Amino acid sequence: MYIGVWSTRELVIADIRDPRRPVQVSSTTLDGYGDGVAIRGDIAYVVTGHHSMGSGTVRPTAGQPGYATGHSFEIYDVKDRAKPQLLSRVKLPIFYGLYMDTWRVRLAGNRAFVNDTYNGIFVFDVADPRQPRALAHRQLPVVPGIGDGDLPVPAQPGPAVGLAITKDWMYIAGAWSDVHIVPATGLATPMDPLPPFRLRPVKGDGPQQDPQFSSYRPEGGQVYAVDLWKKESDGQATLLVAAGMAGLHVVRLGEKFERLAAYPTQGFATSVGHSGEVVYVAEGMGGMGVYRAGVDLRLREIARYRVPGYSMQQVVASPGGNRVLLHVGMNRLHILDVSDPAKPVRAMEDLHPGLFYQRAIPTGFVANRYSLVTWTVSGPFLFDLNPAAPPQATGEQYPFRIGTENGATPDGDGWLVTATNKYFHLAPGEKRSPRDIGLIGIEGHDLNGKPTLFGNTLFIANALTGRVLALDVSTRNRPKLLSTVLLLEHPGHVLELNGKALIPGGYQGLLVWNYRSGSR
Question: Which residue from 46, 82, 425, 428 puts its CA 20 to 30 A from 518's CA?
């Protein structure tokens, strides 16, 4: 497998002969943010963008070396997978536009077709990979009313974000202007066909049971999220488990796990929340399912909220019981009025620059009404879900990025926010940078991840690295590490129950972690 890695600017080659245990073979530095890769034989064709290595920083600013100069078409000899050799590099026009940052390469005969978003489409003759020759270039037209905002100057050409090739024709996906059909007589031949292949199941049943955990593993699914539904006086608890392809599971946890029921969903069950006897499930392209429990705790569907063409990724129910926050599509926040759960109504929608990289909505609320939702580019925004009034954006924005994998959790009248391998306390109205507020960390430990705070115990789950940490934060500015564990999967928000941690652990299942035992 050949991987163009984004902000670390790498071409990574992995051995995937055992697809459940990929092994990195090599990492080669690129002269721009990695993205598109095409392979023919022992030659790798790579396209990059944004910033080059000149500044030595991930995100140089205007005027620094490397700023906006990372647009390249690079060709490597990968016969020796462990030591790729650069054969040639063609620099493309200098440009920096934050949105629509995607770069691709397609091969057809002796031609390489490169789409470089705002810079358009480039065609190269690659018969000699050491000396590629530029043959043609075409930008998409300006789309009135869109080409301004954070871009350097108004009225930029529309971004070209994908393409396909047939004989004498190019089909170009325009992010702002649909599909363009462009004649390319003498340049275009049909794209290289895929070699014959046959799909076959991967042998085995996923990761082996980890002896340091007790776990619940839904057959045919993976655990994305868990919600505490009911807690009994004897210490037993009934849990709602979003189990991916396996749907929604209702599980009792006492001395061991007991499955009470499993319900199929109309898409991947990736998130679950509840208010009383009403359960809300984010079901991908199936929308949000709304279910009500009867006296026997059996669930039946009473409503479904859909937005055509958009998936539902995360759902969080407010303590007041009449509001639901919903992650829709790539970066849309919908707040629903569910005063009548059988008739959910969109009360408001919000959208800001940047994506929701999963679990952008905290699972808790400040004062049982405020939620801090984070867009990757524009930072966290505060929303008021006062059950006695219409939901609204408060207008309060924290104007700093906190990082793709990070998030916030309620802490008193403010928020504990993870950023740059540490955390900080975000008070109402705060506008200073995390560094100026005061970052708090533990030397030698990466505290990036999605936080959840239970009393004086802080859990941080990093979906990118698989690392989960438990910290004693009795003194907020002097945290103590209680335990840490590295999973094979991508952990979700951690829930504490009866002095133990419940970790949504993907194919490893719902894990019970005795974090006070000092596991490392």
Answer: 425
Please give the pLDDT value at position 83: 97
Higher pLDDT, 22 or 411: 411
pTM attached to this predicted model: 0.85
Contact assessment for residue 103 and residue 49, using Cβ atoms and an 8 Å cutoff: yes
Q: Which helix (H) or strand (E) holds 44?
A: strand 43-49
User: For residue 201, with 0-12 CB atoms within 10 Å meaning exposed, 13-18 middle and 19 or more buried, which class applies?
Assistant: exposed
Q: Chain-centre distance of CA 51, in angstroms? A: 22
Domain 214-517 in CATH 3.40.50.300: no
**Rounded to whole angstroms, what are the CA distances from 260 to 216, 230, 428, 485?**
12, 13, 42, 29
Mean pLDDT, residues 76-80 taken together: 98
| The dihedral sign for the CA sequence 182, 183, 184, 190 | positive
Separation CA 279–CA 315 (nearest Å): 10
Residue 127 DSSP SS3: coil
Domain segments of the chain as ranges: 2-183, 214-517
* CATH fold match for the domains 2-183 and 214-517: yes
The CA dihedral of 10, 507, 496, 470, to the nearest 10 degrees, is -40
pLDDT for position 99: 74
The residues pairing with 410 across neighbouring beta strands, listed in sequence order, are 415
Token couple for 320? 């007041």
Is pLDDT of 70 > 60?
yes
**Average pLDDT over the chain, rounded to whole?**
92
Helix (H) or strand (E) segment spanning residue 229:
strand 225-231
Burial class, 112, CB count within 10 angstroms (exposed 0-12 / middle 13-18 / buried 19+): buried
Q: Which residue has the higher pLDDT, 203 or 34?
A: 34
Query: Sheet harboring 495-497: ordered strands across?
Result: 214-216, 510-513, 500-504, 495-497
Q: What is the CATH number of domain 2-183?
A: 2.130.10.10
Render pLDDT for 350-365 as a digit per residue (tens, 0 to 9): 999 888 988 999 999 9
Pick from 179, 159, 203: nearest CA to 71: 159
* CA dihedral over 512, 516, 518, 520, signed as positive or negative: positive
Identify the three-state secondary structure at position 435. Answer: helix
Whether 244 shows a pLDDT value over 70: the answer reads yes
CA dist 374 → 11, 203, 217, 379, 405 (Å): 29, 39, 31, 5, 11
Percentage of the chain surpassing pLDDT 70? 95
d(C-alpha 439, C-alpha 461), whole Å: 18
**Predicted confidence (pLDDT) at residue 450 exceeds the cutoff of 60:** yes
Cross-strand pairs, 72:
48, 91
More confident residue, 320 or 457: 457
Strand ranges (DSSP E) for 264-398? 271-275, 278-282, 288-293, 299-305, 312-317, 323-328, 332-337, 345-351, 370-375, 379-384, 392-397
- How many Å separate Cα 218 from the centre of its chain? 23
Contact (CB, 8 A) for 207 and 233: no
Q: What is the Cα–Cα distance from 300 to 440, expressed in whole angstroms?
A: 46
